[in-house]
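Following up on my earlier thread - several people asked me to post the actual chain instead of describing it. Fair enough. Here it is, all 449 residues.
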Amino acid sequence: MSKSNPRVGFVSLGCPKALVDSERILTQLRIEGYEIVATYDAADVVVVNTCGFIDSAVDESLDAIGEALAENGRVIVTGCLGKRPDEIRQAHPEVLSISGPQDYATVMQAVHAVVPPKHDPFIDLVPDYGLKLTPKHYAYLKISEGCNHRCSFCIIPSMRGDLVSRPVDEVLREAEKLVRGGVRELLVVSQDTSAYGVDVKYAERQWRERSYATRMKSLCEGLSELGAWTRLHYVYPYPHVDEVIPLMAEGKVLPYLDVPFQHASPRILKLMKRPGAVDKTLERIKRWRDICPEMAIRSTFIVGFPGETEAEFEELLDFLDEAQLDRVGAFAYSPVHGAHANDLPDAVPEEIKAERLERFMARQAEISEQRLAAKVGTVQSVLIDLLDGELAIGRSRFDAPEIDGLVQIQDGEAAGLKPGDIVDVRIMGSDEHDLFGLVGVDEDEFGDD
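Reply from S.P.:
Thanks for posting it. Predicted structure:
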């Protein structure tokens, strides 16, 4: 690329949905001839894609803006925190432009104002699937924007609006391009994946001369035609989710569900304004595992929500024992600017929240360790993410990138593995988070050990 091309620095913060937004902005920048650079001093302007979900994310975003201003001086802000421009201006009045999530046009206009594009169609080539911020072998596939729920602790709808589903044929075409470009794993993301299509009355579209409904099951059937791993995130436990589990049992979709249960007490869940039939959750989990016994379930929880009693927290621990979830994340409740939960009475003291979080994670660590130990001696398909000396580091079908565990393959270098390979690994050991295995071990050798 010519050194005279305008250069943009980019900082991407937040969740996978925000990462997809960043990828779309970067793709448009490259199409218009901008060079993406990795340092502040090399950039003509810096774009910061912010997060504003919880207070710690707001602080991180404001710090990132401040660092970009100090190091470069020309900063454009976008993303979820952009929905609160006064807060940004109060901290950093020097920013050039502020826009909310998915407002790609405003970002591009702001970039143009600082440094006009200089497009050269002969050298500024962009792959047809766009630019990605993930490794080549996996990609996030965003199927909708916004959310129709009004959970009391969440401000996402005020930032991203109500549910807007992407047409199913558009999603399938994007997935097809990604797989053609080398992607081996598609991570389906949205604010509420199980609500996909409800806003368009599950409209049908044509792809590969076949009709598909704008609906989670139909989308999964289409994605299964591509030969890549398909992993489902942010799925609410509605009854129609049951329809997807047979696809997992048949190997068409990864046997993995990311379901944000958030709590187990009916009263707390009502205060959270969470959707779904709470009393049927354990029954539904059992039914899922009856259909697909190897299925892994990941979830997230909030401890110390306003009004949570010790008895209700114990109810949550009992739920963990009963549900035997494979992967769990949790955080102590903290007020979010603009959330209705801030007005609830009986706030839990910080020291009690911290103590409950510690007990919660200790209980789940025992469960996770036991469930991983049960995989020792089995052979698991593993997608290789990277090499680290003699080791190859990958993930099984039961582990999403960056949030779940890893599989450390001791003879990865000797086996000639490389990122993007999918290999069978015999599991030789485990701990509370990860698995350890070998490629070059046959069943007889393992049995003699």
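Residues 220 and 240 are 13 Å apart (CA to CA). That should answer part of your original question.
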